[in-house]
C-alpha cells in the first residue's frame, strides 16, 4: 500500500480555514458565466474561487475533467486574473509531492 504523501520529509501542519464569503460566490459565478468551469460543477468553481480570494498558492486536485487540464487551466486563470486576483497553481498531488 502506497504512503501519502510519498516523500519521507513531509510532516503534517495545521491547515488554514478559508473564508467563503459573498466575494467567493461572485467569483465562482464569473467562472461559470465566462465558461471556465461548467455550470453543473458550480461547487468546484466555488472551491477555486475561495482558494484564489484567500491567497492560496495551489489548488491540489485530481479533477482532470474540468479544473486541472490544459484546456481549462488557462480559462480559469484568465477569469480570475481579469477580475483582479492571483490564480493559484492548479495541479495534481503528483505534481506537488512527486510520484509514489
Summarize the structure.
This protein is mainly alpha-helical. Helices cover 42% and strands 6% of the residues.
Describe the structure.
This protein is mainly alpha-helical and 100 residues long. The protein has one domain. Helices cover 42% and strands 6% of the residues. It is built from four helices and two strands. The protein has a two-stranded parallel ribbon with strand order 1-2. Helix 1 (22-33) crosses helix 2. The longest helix has 13 residues, at 70-82. The relative contact order is 0.20.
Task: Considering the chains and any ligands shown, give keywords for the structure.
4 helices, two-stranded parallel sheet, single chain, 2 strands, mainly alpha, 42% helix
Average pLDDT figure = 86
Cα Rg: 14 Å
Report the biggest beta sheet as strand number plus sense, adding barrel if it closes: 2 strands, parallel
Supply the number of helical segments: 4
The tally of strands reads 2
Strand fraction: 5-15%
Estimate the global geometry from the Cα principal axes.
Answer: globular
The arrangement of helices and strands along the chain is: HHEHEH
How far do the termini sit from each other? 10 Å
Number of domains: 1
Helical content band: 40-55%
Low-confidence stretches: none
Q: Given the helix and strand composition, which structural class is it?
A: mainly alpha
How would you write the strand order of the largest sheet? 1-2
Amino acid at each position: 500500500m502506497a504512503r501519502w504523501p510519498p516523500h519521507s520529509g513531509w510532516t503534517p501542519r495545521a491547515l488554514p480555514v478559508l473564508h467563503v464569503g459573498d466575494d467567493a460566490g461572485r467569483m465562482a459565478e464569473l467562472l461559470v458565466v465566462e465558461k471556465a468551469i461548467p455550470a453543473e460543477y458550480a461547487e468546484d468553481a466555488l472551491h477555486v474561487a475561495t482558494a484564489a480570494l484567500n491567497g492560496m498558492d495551489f489548488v491540489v486536485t485530481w479533477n482532470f475533467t474540468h479544473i486541472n487540464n490544459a484546456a481549462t487551466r488557462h480559462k480559469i486563470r484568465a477569469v480570475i486574473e481579469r477580475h483582479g486576483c492571483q490564480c493559484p497553481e492548479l495541479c495534481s498531488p503528483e505534481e506537488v509531492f512527486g510520484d509514489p
